[in-house]
């Protein structure tokens, strides 16, 4: 995610497509008062004999003769990302906890959510915590899960008003703009408190390589062992926070059913009537969330994905800590608006070091790194403190890269120590939020003058996709690639994967989560993939005689250029005209 403005534009388009409600109907809407929020927490981590997933973790650790208790596996492509989540859903016996910024009601997510529903029906306790901003129109239909037995669902920091119309909800919230632009950006998928997936990926076709026109390139980590308990404690803190509203306090089942009928009607108007006998999905259409009218080929692609065989998963066993913003980073109603440039957030949570072998004493490099990160007040500020300890090399992937004064100071200090800094971000053409590109572009010359090496993703090929698995494509293989991974590799020994971007929104507004892993092996693997992407899938931006030049990727057959590559003249003109009106802190 890059900006409130981006999501506003996207949601306005979706709402208009489905049909909104009259603004005056929502003008008086308010959030419910005195909401009942029964407190619940993660179950104690089961022993190996208690659940199949716990047994898998123990067997994998014993097979690898792991020195540490916690294991990590990079999920560097859409099939692995999807298959790992399927495996957790199918293997869970006790609990499933999902925390996301966005869950889109489309073909890929449908299969996952049907699996979640089936897990609940076999006795698994399910909790789903979802940021409320996207829960409008067809995407609101995922909230129907809240009315399934054994599933609880809460919406974080909700907007008031009817969910058929983003226009109405935003209009109703104009007097609360400071609060509604602060969003919960965390991503967690936890099974039985022993296995989890975390990183930058939301749930939806575009995140799993199943969208027809454009797909995100992302990176997750499959996590095993005691550190999952730290992730669960993070989930619990948000779940039991006053900003989390049970779905039933916000919308009724009848209202969701009415919205579902409207969505089906809108979809039917946009496609040909089905052939006699109905489509292959008609038999379960009453059970599965409705999608963005996926083609039969797309639906087959989603349903053909296989669950990962966790019994053969190769983990790297290493020490790690969890960095997570406190839920209170999003201020309570009576706390007043938070200035984007003044005042500190309520604090960063840095967990105990997970995975230290028995008998080990504190004082190693991870302990020092965790202590350094703890001196920051947010996840991003903690990472800036960590950058202050870099000695040789920093590799950074940030899809939305809008450096504020603190970031630029951290980079300048690192460069003064001789640290090489390479940053991969979206080009204008690959950015799904062109307005966010302005916040980066206005700092390009200054960053280059510091000696920072800048790379921008080439959108119209699979360069980075080939380095990080595959970003997916449509049936003709012509999908646009968009960068969404959030990764930092420091000195070839520290790897950070999380939900955060290096921008002022992640630093000051949204809540974020990150894993800091001390592993030469994982760092080497991640760095190798990133360096391949820099060579083969990205434009290198340089200054030549006072002008910016984009150097073509190696082996691409393209020519160097002095204009934003692959971007239309009209788009460049629009951003030049309107970009200066968008402040960095909102991008």
Describe it for me?
It is a single chain. The protein has 587 residues and is of the alpha+beta class. Among the domains are: 201 residues, Endonuclease Chain A (Endonuclease, Chain A); 179 residues, Endonuclease, Chain A (2-Layer Sandwich). Helix content is 32%, strand content 18%. The chain has a ten-stranded mixed sheet, sandwiched between helices. A nine-stranded mixed sheet has the order 9-4-3-2-5-6-8-1-10, with helices on both faces. Strands 7-16 form a two-stranded parallel ribbon. Strand 13, helix 12 and strand 14 form a beta-alpha-beta unit. Helix 11 packs parallel to helix 12. It starts with a helix and ends in a 9-residue tail after the last helix. The N terminus is likely disordered.
Tell me the name of the CATH class of the domain at 72-266 and 301-306.
Answer: Alpha Beta
Shape: globular
Calculate Rg over CA atoms: 23 Å
Query: What is the number of strand segments?
Result: 21
- Across the major sheet, the strand order is 12-11-19-18-17-13-14-15-20-21
- Unreliable stretches: 1-6, 8-27, 273-293, 334-346, 358-363, 462-466, 473-477
